[in-house]
UniProtKB/TrEMBL annotation:
Protein name per Swiss-Prot or TrEMBL: non-specific serine/threonine protein kinase
An annotated GO BP: regulation of mRNA processing
PANTHER family assigned: PROTEIN KINASE DOMAIN-CONTAINING PROTEIN-RELATED
Keyword Secreted in record: no
Listed GO MF terms: ATP binding; protein serine/threonine kinase activity
Catalytic reactions of this protein: L-threonyl-[protein] + ATP = O-phospho-L-threonyl-[protein] + ADP + H(+); L-seryl-[protein] + ATP = O-phospho-L-seryl-[protein] + ADP + H(+)
Top-rank EC class of the record's enzyme: transferase
Keywords, comma-separated and alphabetical: ATP-binding, Kinase, Nucleotide-binding, Serine/threonine-protein kinase, Transferase
EC number: 2.7.11.1
Ligand binding (ATP): K87
Amino acid sequence: MEVDFGKEYGTYEAHLINENVMNMLQGLLKREEEDTQDYRLGGYHSIHIGYIFKQGHYTVQSKLGWGSFSTVWLVRDTHLDKYIALK
């Protein structure tokens, strides 16, 4: 079964995976994202993986989700040595 994950991830031949699981994964990868033009002064704060907050206290690992008013990021708290969500 050939699976197209879009131009960012490409097309791959899928093997040894349940088709229901594959359909679920494709749905997750194709979810709607916020408009990158909203990352501007007065809009969303421009953040990237590896971004550091509060003089190294938090390091961005991944985006967890977003909504009309904010984005939620998975960050590493370097003081507590654990992962937390930052909104």
